Amino acid sequence: MASNRKVCVLGLGSMGLGVALTLLERQFDVSGFDINKEACKSLAKAGGKVGLNPKDAVKDCSVVVILVVNETQVEDVLFGKEGAAGGFEMSTVVIQSSTVSPAFANTCGTRLQDAGFDMIDAPVSGGAVGARSGNLSIMASGPEQAFQHAGDVLEAVSGKVHRLGVEHGIGSTVKTVNQLLAGVHIAVAAEAMAFGVRAGADPETLYEVISGSAGSSWMWNNRVPHILNNDYTPLSAVDIFVKDLAIVLGTAHKLNFPLPLTAAAHQQFIAAAASGLGREDDSAVFKVFQKLSGISINQEKEKK
User: Fold this and answer.
1) Shared domain check, 104 and 48
2) Left (φ > 0), alpha (ψ -120 to 50) or beta: where does 276 sit?
């Protein structure tokens, strides 16, 4: 890959910083911006450049990756007072990878297209680990010329790029389905774990048995160890699923489509956030069940 290729990453949270560092390792010339100064220092320490604001950060960049929290932040970093769109080169392509509603993705793509720029609607799955290892699953839709221009960037940070069509919003539609399943699986894994422990099962044995049984899931295997270790360091926070499942439900509402399991899972994440757990790892939804039932994983371990 050409070391002179300049790429900007806007949003240097656990996902964005991972992507930026991966691109640096793949010999791209990387700049970035985040309101979190410590994240900016991490990028600079690794050899990246840090802009004063989004507009400054995208200067001379041929590809801009956006990985912020929500639609409001996407709007701000692109079209705000010091927004990136004001600093784009003529051929700049935007890879919009924040989780947003399909309708917003479509509108965002249209606004950029009207201004003369291409966008790839490219939400991702794989978490911070996938971002840092360059093994994200990317659900991408957008014009062919955008993929031709930015394909090397997509390939550098992904294990698989799913080409889903030319219309903005298709990628985000597929991501909403993924988040529906991810959120429901996390909530039900927490519910099942709490139920089993409350009924007298040993927590670690329960995890081991279910992990090799038909009731297992990727989220069970990935999140239950957080619960067993009482480690809720946020890799993906409770607040993220409060937001993402709201997007899922909002999209379904527009379609007049019922999502009863998603709604129940969403309420559990809201309950966790209302309990002050919003910034903890999303597996902390377990603590809602734990409080309701009076169980303690640590006490169960001590009994052994």
Assistant:
1) yes
2) left
Q: 278, 251 in Cβ contact below 8 A?
A: no
- Do the beta carbons of residue 102 and residue 133 sit within 8 Å? no
Per DSSP, the three-state class of 78 is: helix
Number of neighbouring beta carbons within 10 Å of residue 76: 18
In a domain, residue 1? The reply is: no
Under DSSP, the state recorded for 145 is H
- 175 in active site: yes
Q: Compute CA 139 distance to the chain's CA centroid, rounded to the nearest angstrom.
A: 12
The per-residue pLDDT for range 29-58, each reduced to its tens digit, is: 999 999 999 999 999 999 999 999 999 999
pLDDT at 200: 95
- The answer to whether 124 and 136 have CB atoms below 8 angstroms apart is yes
pLDDT score at 1 = 41
With tokens 């604001």, the residue in question is: 53
Range of the domain at 203: 173-303
What residues form DSSP beta bridges with 31? 8, 49
The pLDDT value recorded for residue 304 is 56
Which one is catalytic: 175, 287, 291, 301?
A: 175
User: 3-state class of 141 per DSSP?
Assistant: strand
Instruction: Supply the pLDDT for residue 235.
Output: 87
Q: Which of 166, 200, 218 is the last residue of a domain?
A: 166
Tell me the whole-structure pTM to 2 decimals.
0.92
Q: Give the bridge partners for 181, in sequence order.
A: none
Question: Which residues of the chain fall below pLDDT 70?
Answer: 1-4, 299-304
Position 126 scores a pLDDT of 92
**Could you tell me the CATH number of the domain that includes residue 21?**
3.40.50.720
Single-letter code of the amino acid located at 31: S
